[in-house]
Amino acid sequence: MNDPQSPPERGASSPAPGSRRPGGRTARTRAAVRDAVLTGLAEHGYPALTVEYVAEHSGVHKTTLYRRWGGVESMVADALALAGEDRWTAPDTGSLAGDLRALAREVADSFADPALAAAPTAFVAAAFQSPRAAESLHAFYAERFRRCACVVDRAVARGEAPAGTDAGAVVRAVSAPLFLRLFVTREPVDTRIADQAARTVLAAVEAGAFTSEDAGAPA
């Protein structure tokens, strides 16, 4: 368990909640708070998550939590921001079909294990109750979609997709039916369903469904 962060010197300016640059004890404190937030969300949900709970499970004094984050909403937002700072990269299988299938299967695999699925499921639920969490979840996936742009760029270069194909729309279309089943209809998602989503999007890409209306039009 990490030690509580030492208070700043008198007269030092206070940064915005959760905005300090990671490093040393600050990074360890931030990681400890993130882990406690994830555990609390998974066990109790956003409405029941408290500063006292995070303090007890992170080993960070609640005075420090209030000073750095201001409250639970900012802690949840920062936990999502920290998750988005990982080194995840989009798959590169050598074909658009393989890349889309890999992306869809990654979503399915992420929610196949209830223990692994608890935290992301709780984040989605929190986004419906907290504007800050919703903004952070949006930013998290916007970054994920940005990192996936190379999948479509490579496909266009290989002649597998028309020029002007909207990469973000393609990636959203792959994951959308899976998230619908996971969070709305509460149906199971497995490899077969993931592959089906990937095949559907591949056919749409090849048909030009994700190109803008003016793509390829003369200037």
From TrEMBL:
Residues 50-69 bind DNA. InterPro entries: Homeodomain-like_sf (IPR009057), HTH-type_TetR-like_transc_reg (IPR050109), HTH_TetR (IPR001647), Tet_transcr_reg_TetR-rel_C_sf (IPR036271), TetR_C (IPR011075). Signal peptide: none annotated. SUPFAM superfamilies: Homeodomain-like (SSF46689), Tetracyclin repressor-like, C-terminal domain (SSF48498). Transmembrane segments: none annotated. Residues 1-30 are annotated as: Disordered. Keywords: DNA-binding, Transcription, Transcription regulation. Pfam families: TetR_C_11, TetR_N. It comes from the Bacteria. GO terms for molecular function: DNA-binding transcription factor activity; transcription cis-regulatory region binding. Residues 27-87 form the HTH tetR-type domain. Residues 10-30 have a biased composition (Low complexity). PANTHER family: HTH-TYPE TRANSCRIPTIONAL REGULATOR RUTR, TETR-FAMILY TRANSCRIPTIONAL REGULATOR. This is HTH tetR-type domain-containing protein. It comes from Streptomyces laurentii.
